[in-house]
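Subject: for your reference before the review

Hello V.,

The reviewers asked for a structural picture of the protein, and I figured it would be easier to keep everything in one thread rather than splitting it across files. Below is the amino acid sequence we used in the manuscript, unchanged from the supplementary table.
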Amino acid sequence: MIERSLFNEEHELFRATVRRFVEKEITPHHAQWERDGIVPRELWLKAGEQGLLCCTVPEEYGGLGLDYLFDVVVFEELWRAGASGPGFLIHTDLVATYILSFGTEEQKRRFLPKMVTGEWIGALGMTEPHAGSDLKAIRTRATRDGDDFVINGQKVFISNGQHADVLVCATKTDRDAGAKGVTLFLIEGDREGFRRGRNLEKLGMHAQDTSELFFDNVRVPASNMLGSEGDGFSLMMTKLSQERLAQAIRSATVAETIIEWTLDYTTQREAFGKTIFDFQNTQFKLAELKTQATLARVFTDKCIELFMQGKLDPVDAAMAKMYTTELHCKAADECLQLFGGWGYMWEYPICRAYADARITKIAGGSIEIMKTIIARAMKSEHDRR
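And here is what came back from the structure prediction:
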């Protein structure tokens, strides 16, 4: 099999630390967190103490100043353990990245150190009840009032919403300007008029809190603006490749993990005098999935490499996201079938992985959006010939 070549010895030593943390602090408690519908804040503080949050944040803002692969290691070890509850990816890969990339010096020094330690938890406020993939259609309004902006509106499907101490929130500062009317703000969770709705009940990812958020005349200073007024949409577009790459890393990792679970199970479980693996159907299914998972891994690792070089093309990110998430869902479905009735029991990781998988074809841009991006790029290239 093709060996991965991205990581060096330092990364692997860090992986061992992360794996021990997951085994001690997450795995024994995750089932209870699924029942609770939320991960306790104490976990975030413990993760911060171990240096598992915001690995790439520079030392001057309280971080370790490591490369992106250290964040990748954290995400992979969580997903390999089936730990879908801790919303570290949103916190680290999106919120902290937005602040680091577009924030003022004052904003970086104010928010990032507490995010590194886990004292403050980050969330991304983009999606609204009537605006998912079409972010230009958001209706949350930010109206200038002297040196402040007054924000009114609603967000939905917000991961880390119940715990959020800082929200990167997309608003409309000019409702008639389309994409150029979108502006981003950093909103603290204790602002007057900011209210958290119910913790939403989902098909999967039961331990990750997902919320409705409401803004009723929430007043924030203009200094909380992230970037410039009207630049919000373009700033979001610059981060889509990174978000889609993260989805691909997740799905590639989970697909591999599911296949390993299934190989272990089918080589031990017997039916009609032989193991489930001895049946040709099982062998063919697993051989097909293993081949596709290997292709997904090689392509995803290449995308990671390109991203670190600043060369990841949005179309390549879309292809990685599309292919890996479709494989993720396929592997969960076909492997659950090989577990038989036990695969339908919540106590089995494959059952929880099946429920967790479905969101991957929606989050970070739906599969249909990915196909549209790829097709448009194909047509554009064709027309240039």
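For the response letter, the relevant points are probably these. The first strand starts at residue 122 and ends at 125. The mean pLDDT is 96.

Happy to draft the paragraph if you're swamped.

O.
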